[in-house]
């Protein structure tokens, strides 16, 4: 077995938490059940990985099999990576029959026609997700297995999720190969990035509970905002305001769980407007700002601001539009004309 | 105000070591019976103290055999006026025992005491007391603890971490945003935190330096002087602009860090000075904060 492959397998196994190694090796299926029985999973990981490498040697593993193990690891730990979303465009409306074999063939052919030194690996999952792993080399160097790009493509949709390696120069070639293989004619990067691949899917596939623009005057059922107060002498101030905030929040954010995003970024190029009494800046040029919001769960965090008294309800549409506009990077300019208070986001 | 009279420019070479490092701030009460002439003695004593503490098992780096060399020096340039004491620099260097042939000392920790226009404290001091209220350290916390405890024992003084309140951070960002700089400047950034939510939120609000300065210039009425009211107006403008877009009351969030091309400061009492031109001004402000904490 090639020593680079051996080292790659060793390092991949080392990444796996000890109590998950057996499960992942079983999913991999490259080592037989009998071989797995011989492994002692109660020793230090260094030793476990060495033993795995020995067994792989017995089976003459090559880089193709090692790459599959890597996909399995990254599929389970997908949230460790940052994912960008790309949308493909078709020229016609025809829904073509998707042939996975044809897709793989065309994809590999397009990449290999430009670059010989690549390792391309596919794995299909039950939810129609096709995972593609590409390790990139150069005309002179063999592929760098430690910095691959991962692509997740749901064949019934025009969306591709890409976790790029740092070698960004290969993106154009990758994009080309994707549209050629899937019979689309164009691809563009959306302004949407997150660690949570599932949340990105929720957003573009519209799988989250969306807000309804109905304004009801009665509170939603089961909407008891405050915790039970044993002492009836304690009265909530502003009860009606609190209820209004809760209601408006539900309308604007929807009542279901929010997709999980970690950040949103706004490049503001709007005018600075102030109270004329304050006698401050009155420039004719934009007041340039860059605003970044970050949180372990941004949308839930934003949803909790108004109830916490930190924000007005409803919250600004610049924030609440994130899921249905499917973007978390924005450039905001002033809208000219009738409504100077509103913004346009190109 | 800046640069202070009689000190048109501090020799940039001597102060280069201050720039672009994150310094942790402390306030220090006056030192009792500190003698400038005895710096060499003090260095020896501190060195022996550190070695003894390491023997006792309070080792700083486990498994790494290091001899720590101590150097104390005075920096006459680092002060506001003649009324201030000259700054005192403490440097800890290491020479690995293993490579005594290539004996090149590596600086592992530095700390310095200073007073820039600290007259409020030094004026009414009895004799025998030396006022150097501001202490800045850079390097492992364990070394800071060792040096701090030696100074506390030897000069009967008291070190306290200097936290920077949101109000003081606002003052700093307003002041520094208004500074005129020759080169292209980095953004004026304010970082807010909303920790008490179920999912904590951090907000970074970065303004183009030209636009921030333009705003400050219209707010500041008297050049060379800054009032609390002007700082409040500046901040209110920034909050209002933010609210217009996002409907969020930034004023209710906690301002934890401010960053400009001149300097950056964090509420935990960590400061980075980026531009030598405004060094005296920054140090003067920090000296003032240290003195408030002591009094």
TrEMBL record, chain A:
Its main location: nucleus. It is found in: Chromosome, Centromere; Nucleus. One of its GO terms (cellular component) is nucleoplasm. It comes from the Eukaryota. It holds the Pfam family CENP-N. Keywords: Centromere, Chromosome, Nucleus. The keyword Nucleus applies. GO terms for biological process: CENP-A containing chromatin assembly; chromosome segregation. The keyword Nucleus applies. Belongs to the CENP-N/CHL4 family. This is CENPN protein.
TrEMBL record, chain B:
One of its GO terms (cellular component) is nucleus. It comes from Pomatorhinus ruficollis. InterPro entries: CENP-L. It is found in: Chromosome, Centromere; Nucleus. Keywords: Centromere, Chromosome, Nucleus. This is Centromere protein L. It holds the Pfam family CENP-L. Transmembrane segments: none annotated. Belongs to the CENP-L/IML3 family.
